[in-house]
Design brief:
oxidoreductase activity; Rossmann fold; 328 residues; alpha/beta; SDR_fam; 8-stranded mixed beta sheet; 8 strands; 12% strand; NAD(P)-bd_dom_sf
Length: 328
């Protein structure tokens, strides 16, 4: 058991694993100011990466993150990529922009952080996909697959002979316990009366974990590893749709009680699990794919059995391809 836990802070991990940050390239989705994506990016700046690629919907929401990074180290190459990841075309265009940029030879870590939480029933305008599934999983599924040429290490190895590995980190949630994959009606179009904010959120968060499992099955032997995680309970703009009634419904589904003992984390504590997943080489020697409080776990308090099913992980890949209309 490592020394990391609930109280661990992101910056401390960056300093501890500074050799895994310095000179490397990280891509992070959803790094809007005040969220854990932004806190992750700013924490990584303390390790002096070569490049931070920030993928978000609007520059004005990301600019404070860019300014904070440059206040730490003005030499970091910060690239803002405009993309609404609930739009499949937005994900494809963002990936193409990165692939076409010759100044970005490779990506060492992709952190799929963006999400929508517990919103009213909404279908995306372009693809008619349920919004939480589109923004939280399908957009990242497309983005990640299109970025594989810059994520996967070259079979011939780098010119200097130093082995390179890469990671895809999927920010999930204990909310995976609120509901599994609706294989036959993922967008609630057949049964819109069955829509609930947290059933849809649970589906998206379950998909995050299954996506990591299948990425490992397909690409671990080629030097690409993936982990998913619960960052903790943190007050951010993600909770803008949350009401007391929704809280009661969600806590009953997830914890089996309407009065769970949930301790809040600071933003620094909230980004720590993401950063350990992104950096710690020891994880490759440990069993598991899902982290909570910076530790790998299969505790059903935090992760549902349906989110760890390897056969469902393989099924999810083909199911996702059908929904996005593209085979990878």
């Amino acid at each position: 058991m490592s020394q990391f836990g609930f109280e661990t802070e992101g910056i401390d991990l960056v300093h501890q694993f500074s050799d895994r940050v310095k000179g490397c390239t990280f891509a992070i989705t959803g790094p809007s100011a005040g969220g854990i994506g932004a806190e992750t990016a700013v924490s990584l700046a303390h390790g002096h990466p070569a490049c931070l690629i920030l993928i978000g919907r609007a520059l004005d929401r990301i600019q404070p993150t860019i300014d904070a990074i440059h206040s730490i180290d003005s030499s970091i190459d910060v690239r803002f990529i405009q993309a609404d990841l609930s739009s499949l075309s937005g994900s494809r265009n963002a990936a193409r922009t990165i692939l076409d940029d010759t100044a970005i030879p490779n990506i060492d870590v992709l952190i799929n952080n963006a999400a929508v939480m517990a919103c009213p029933y909404t279908l995306t305008p372009d693809n008619k996909l349920e919004l939480q599934l589109a923004a939280g999983h399908l957009g990242h599924f497309v983005l990640t697959n299109h970025l594989l040429p810059k994520l996967l290490p070259s079979p011939s190895g780098p010119p200097d002979g130093t082995p390179r590995s890469a990671r895809v980190i999927n920010v999930s949630s204990v909310g995976n316990k609120a509901g599994g994959i609706r294989w036959s009606d993922p967008n609630f179009t057949l049964h819109p009366d069955e829509y609930s904010e947290f059933a849809a959120y649970g589906q998206a968060k379950t998909a995050n974990v299954l996506f990591s499992i299948e990425l490992n099955r397909r690409f671990a032997a080629r030097g690409l590893r993936s982990w998913a995680l619960h960052p903790g309970s943190i007050s951010t703009g993600l909770q803008k749709h949350i009401t007391p009634d929704l809280v009661r419904d969600a806590t009953l589904k997830v914890f089996g009680t309407t009065t769970p003992n949930i301790k809040r984390k600071t933003l620094q504590q909230g980004c720590a699990t993401t950063i350990r997943a992104a950096l710690d080489p020891q994880l490759e020697n440990e069993e598991g794919v899902f982290l909570n409080d910076c530790q790998l776990t299969t505790d059903p308090t935090y992760i549902a059995p349906w989110a760890l099913d390897k056969e469902d992980a393989q099924r999810l890949w083909g199911w996702s391809e059908q929904l996005v209309g593209e085979t990878f």
